[in-house]
Amino acid sequence: MYLWLTGYDIQVGLGVNHRLRMNPLWSDLETHVLEASSDLEVRGKCFYPEERKGEKFVITLRGSPSPVEFARTVADIQQRDADGMPRYRTYRGYQVPVFECPKGVARLRRERRADAWKAWMYVPESYIDNCLAILRTKAAQYIYIHEHIIEKERWINSFSVQSNDPTE
User: Fold this and answer.
1) What pTM was estimated for this model as a whole?
2) How much helix, strand and coil, in percent to the nearest 5, is found in the chain?
3) What domain range includes position 63?
4) 78 part of a folded domain
5) For residue 84, is it within any domain?
6) 119 forms bridges with which residues in the sheet?
7) Is residue 42 part of a domain?
């Protein structure tokens, strides 16, 4: 899907880790005492495909120094059998690994009250910096969302903010 960027908001924060004041005390001793956050909310209106034209989207990106999902490797998503051994299948006479591919980078949900599709995802902090570099330009800005449906749920397979017209 291609969207025109209609607006964005950025919020950065710094403070004492809020989990330290929880009751009962959250007890992961490797957690940092101070935390910083960067949130970028981008809003857009779909112009392609034609059947989705005019639909609104709100995507929130939460910057993290090292999001857990970005640390995973292909070996981490290889399926395992009942004994915990990696699974393989035969393809053209060769043994190839069987993977459990993630559903997507974020689930896309329809919020009827706001009349918009919404998604929320953790991203590396550098990704937010890159998005802001594009958003600061005077050029027209677009959002690209590759979505797919799994078990009646919409998932974002890929997402980008760009300055070039995707229809050209």
Assistant:
1) 0.85
2) 15, 50, 35
3) 2-70+103-162
4) no
5) no
6) 59
7) yes
